[in-house]
Design brief:
alpha/beta, Purple Acid Phosphatase, chain A, domain 2, 6-stranded mixed β-sheet, 5-stranded mixed β-sheet, 11 strands, globular
Length: about 180
């Protein structure tokens, strides 16, 4: 079984990111997945990526850029320096499961659910952008895809992240746990 730690929309806010990662790390996830808007506005992604690197402590990290990540090439370079898996979108294969990740809008998430990522159908699509936690199951003929949005670490009420255990043989038992992130300070 794989335990995913999913966060999104940190918007370069280091204290909020540290609070979110502390909540997630308490549950011993196998990998960390950031669904975009790592930085934003006057906040660079550096501090968020540094915090993610410290907490991950060698566990895999994957991330995608968001609409507020103004320099995706810089984000890609910073991710590579830290050994993170970066893409737009990202396709992860874990325990025989295909996980697609995007920052996304509703249409993008639905498009990946219906058609896959890079031609590969996915079992799970992760996205951010809306700042609202969501879990949905969609059917496409004989194929089922699950959609997860963890919510946001900043500019949301409540601020949330998600944990998801993936028993590979039975997706019907997948159920995310949305965790509230305390306000720093």
């Amino acid at each position: 079984m794989t335990r995913l730690a999913v966060l999104s929309d940190t918007h370069g806010r280091v204290p909020e990111t540290v609070a979110a990662l502390t909540v997630l790390n308490a549950h011993a996830p196998d990998l960390f997945l950031h669904c975009g808007d790592v930085g934003g506005g006057r906040y660079s992604p550096h501090g968020v990526l540094n915090a993610l690197s410290r907490v991950a402590d060698g566990r895999p990290v994957s991330l995608v850029p968001g609409n507020n990540d103004r320099d995706p090439a810089l984000l890609a370079a910073l991710s590579e320096e830290r050994g993170f898996h970066y893409g737009d979108p990202v396709l992860i294969e874990r325990d025989g499961l295909r996980i697609g990740m995007t920052h996304g809008t509703t249409w993008e998430q639905d498009d990946f659910a219906a058609h896959g990522v890079d031609g590969e159908h996915c079992d799970l699509i992760l996205s951010g952008h809306t700042h609202r936690p969501a879990w949905e199951r969609k059917s496409f003929g004989d194929r089922t895809v699950y959609l997860l949005n963890p919510g946001a670490c900043w500019r949301a009420s409540p601020r949330t992240v998600a944990l998801l255990d993936l028993p590979p043989q039975d997706p019907t038992k997948w159920k995310p746990t949305f965790l509230e992130v305390p306000r720093p300070g």
